[in-house]
Structures are given as structure tokens and as C-alpha cells.
Amino acid sequence: MMTAQSATRDNLTIQACLGQCTDPCPVQEQFQLFQTVFNQLKLPPIVDRREHPRSDAHRGITIVVLAELVEAVNVFLEGNRQCPGGVLLAMSAGWMSRRPSPDHPDLDTLYIHQAMTADRGGQTYLDVFSHPRRVSYLVNHLTGFTTEFRRTEGEELAAFGLDTPTSSSLLLNRRADDKLLTTSMCATVGVAHPITVGFWLPGDHNLHQHYSNNYPTVTAVKLTSRDLDIRHVEAKVREFLTSGMLADYEKVFISLFGV
């Protein structure tokens, strides 16, 4: 189990396994941030199991989230609550590799060698695999588009010629980053979601046609130039906050589109 004293040693080991790394090393920073966040959430500390590579074959799907902490922690923990061991977090493209596909001679398949893993109860591990696991689906957030061009190593990893499905398409990123859209879709299919009010302006896409007002837990408010008056928005927010649906809640989270 990692302690405050062992954190520096383990982070240096992580940096070394990446080969070349910028200073400050983004993976080292993210790993330290992980420990801080888990401590604040009162989750158990990360257990470093790299001295004993995992040899157990995972027969189910392997979803890999290639991302920084801010983009990944919720998906990583909830994914493993629903599918223990099936959602892996890679904080660097150096933890993965491309190999010739066993199914398509002209394509490559992604494999993961090292990852953050978790069990259903929220215990997290840093693991290496004696036999790299084949990736069923890659959620690629280490791209210029998703990191404001701070990190782009995911682009080369997931370049053309893969038979591994990935999430790096511009259209899919735009949909996934639209919180009002994803919440509306959850409401439509009966997936648990937060009670939400969202404000949107007509833009250059037609995703708004999927925003839902058919469910009491989701309210989509279309704004016009006239409605940009702060008093109009304030009235809608006040109406939302005083609704009976929030009686059992203590906090409200505010998010900008795309954040």
C-alpha cells in the first residue's frame, strides 16, 4: 500500500518507464493528484502491485480510458463499480502498444501493458500485466482537441490503421462533452442521472433536437439574445432551486458546456 513516503519513489519509477518525459512530468503530476483526490474522497490509497505482474486472463471487455485525472476519475470509478476490472485508466500512451491484428492482417490492435485498475468497492491499484491485455475500446482524451493541445500522444497511438474502436472522432467528442445532451439521453433510456436544468443557445449543430423536456428531472431552456438578460436566467435558476425535487439535496453543481 502506498504511503506519503513511498509516493516520490513510485512516481519516479512511473516516469522512468515512460522513456522520454517532459519536465514536469505530466504523468507524475497526475499520479500525485490522484492520491490527493482519493484522500479527499476518503477512498483507500492506491496499492502498487507492479512487483507482482497480473497473470490472470481477463475474459470480458477491456475499456481503456487514456486521459488525465479531470477527464477520467468519475468514469474510471463508476465503470469499475458496474464492471469490476473492466475499465482501465492509462495516464500515458507509453503504457500501451500497437501490434498486428490477429483478425485483420492490414490493421493493428491496441494492447495495454500497465494501468490503474479498481475493484467494485473503489480500491485502486497500479498494475502491470505479464500478458498485455487486448483493448476492446479506447476512450482517447490525450489529444490536442481534448487537452487544449497540452498533450497529444494519444493521437499517434490511435492513428489510422486500427481495428480497435476508439472515441477520438470530433463528432463523438462534441456529443460526449455536451452535458445536457448526455443527461437527456440518460433520462430517455432510464439510466440514473442528476436532476438538471440546462441553458443553451442555437449554434452550428443540431444536437439541441435531442435535448429533452419530457422528463421532470431534465429541463432544457433555450436562450435568445433577449433572454441573455441575467434576470431571466436568474429567475429560471431560482425556480429550479426552489422546486420540490431538490428537497433531499444539499449541494448543486454548476458546469459550463464542454467542461
TrEMBL record:
GO terms for molecular function: ATP hydrolysis activity; carnosine synthase activity. One of its GO terms (biological process) is carnosine biosynthetic process. InterPro entries: CARNS1. This is Uncharacterized protein.
